[in-house]
Fold these 4 entries.
Entry 1:
Amino acid sequence: MPDNEKENNNENEQQQSSESSFETGSITVEKGGRFFHCLTIIGQIEGHYILPSQNKTTKYEHVIPQLVAIEESREIAGLLIILNTVGGDVEAGLAIAELLSTMRTPTASLVLGGGHSIGVPLAVSCERSFIVPSATMTVHPVRMNGTLLGVPQTLSYFEKMQDRIVNFVESNSNISADDFRRLMMKTGELVMDVGTVLEGQEAVDCGLIDCLGGLSDALDYLERTAGSK
């Protein structure tokens, strides 16, 4: 193959890789001779309904296949989840969190900016969770938009959904179910709502997040964990 044709092929491959990274919000990097995959969860988590085009979204039908591919890959030694999300579809977010919590591949999460609402279970779903000092996490009860029926079954559905989130967070972090519920039901902190806003150190102090740290800390953890397995 001529040299100029090889160069064109390499340029095309690099362009395709760059476009793929832009579309999926993911990239694979090398550190210490091992490959680590970085996946971003940003904006609003999109579920069964398509959100307006001006919204920045993370689509669960894109994320789930990536997680399956990462788990089955022999080359990828660890997975880093970077979170800056306002929340979104509860069931879609919980589905992604459940997948992350059951992976054999070493995982770490890093909260930047915000890890709000259903972003909380996503943050705690990894083996090790990190948060930068300037980031915040909003903990509040389950909320739904649209038409709701004023019947006992609706309240029961909300309670069951909330229990699923509380139990998941308790199982994957160092905070108790009672303490997490107290954060969810706190009044006087959010305008026209109930809940709690936790800054980086506060999220660590209450046991929700494992430790304060940044990108290098999360990657170092993955490198150490991958090296011990």
Entry 2:
Amino acid sequence: MKEDLKEIKLKNRIHFIDENNNISEDNYYDVTYYSGGYAFVQEKPFGTWRLRDRKGNLSKLEFDLIILTQEGQNLIKIHNDKYRFLDYNGKISKDCYPRAETYNFGYARVYLDERKIKQGKHHYRDLLGNLTEYPTYLGNQTYKYFKKKISLKEFLEDEKLPYDEKLVDFVIRCEKEKLRKIKARGSGNSPKYYRPYIQSVEETIYKYKNKGKEKITQSKSNQNIELDEDNENQ
């Protein structure tokens, strides 16, 4: 998600300008917009990219490829490594692939086996990082929520939505970004405006987590019933 941060070009080099209009001493050949407190910077033409935080610190990791998207997951390739994904909080995925494509409508195509790339055998990676052979109801609904096509309540209180522990962290990150924008608006800075919003979010997440516990408990109960039946038949 794009953040407001100014850039200025001086003598064919790009500098950053902070909220106090101070121009950074460090400068680059090319830069991306800031997202989640980070921007990609390139020091020379055809060179690798690095992450820069708001204080000007650069990551040790270097990237051969970056493709930014508006779906919260950017496609990257660490220097001399495989393809990974970077979310808008600057978190790099642990899963990596010999080939991957950018996100489109909530999914990225990833290839698990380099030998099968030419055959086009791929999996779908949803916004939560789940891999499936086909698009799923969970993946479709997660995308709709992320693009604000459905509300948080419509999303998490959907009886057909399966429980996924990763979904809670994903929702919290999204709602924090929404809250940041609410506070950025004039009257939105007042607690009387954003506290009811926070309370509503917390209640919705709490219900979803409880629903998940119930499903896990029910699943374990069913397993116990099956085991008991097996014991009786022996």
Entry 3:
Amino acid sequence: MIVRGWWVGALAAASLLGGCGFLSTEEDEGVCTGTIGGAPVELRLRAGRSSYRLDDLNDDALFRLRYDDDAGNEVDVDVGRIDTYGLPVVAEESPLFAGAPPWIVAWEERALAPTAGTLLLSYITDYDVEGRFTYELGGDDRLVCDFQLSRPMPTSGSSDSDWD
């Protein structure tokens, strides 16, 4: 039906232009809380600066996480690479650096120099990931960072419609 086709097309166009939130890539959420230099901090995940995708060659999950606050404190995970095929069935907190399990392929922090850390993935699919990592920064300084990243599901490029 022509009216239905127009409605679906208008909805898809509005979604791609940011009119609808369900296809938005700006829905990332996250916060780091703890202490840096002995002072309490709360850093927020920067909208549009973090990313999550699956590598086309091996299905590794690739993360980039950017947190900051108004005082200039930053957490920049440049490379977080997780072997999705090697993930354990039961989610458990795992070391990020020394003693990391083989499913944590890489984790590189640019802004800080953590002395130790852990990672817990509570949920991971092709389009969504949720988890928490911690950084031990030396002395009593420590950060606990939560993240939730979502990406839109791909839309069909064909003119055929499943609605008919």
Entry 4:
Amino acid sequence: MSVIPVDPEQFSEFIDKSKIFDTTRQLMTEYLTNWYKDDAEIFVENMQADLSTVLEHYHFYHEFVSITKNFNFDPPMDTVSCTIRITDEEDDCCARYRTVFDDQLKIIDDTIEA
């Protein structure tokens, strides 16, 4: 019996049907593009390559999806987070991109940790 009150099979179905990783990847591409346009020097310093190299040669791995009760809201809100790990051509981790969605899968926030 699972201690977590979420059916793992239903959660896997949710991930597949919602295509949350596809949505997150599109948002990540927009985020990286905007970051590069805003400050190419810092982008290259953090990502160790220019935008086209990152998008064409780096690897993007589905890392995790989680459901969270977010207490930063009043009343607390259920949110869904999706993270993609970005690695360079040698598969060394460069960054993690995370998107937070509300319970209707509308974006609340996105961040990158380089």
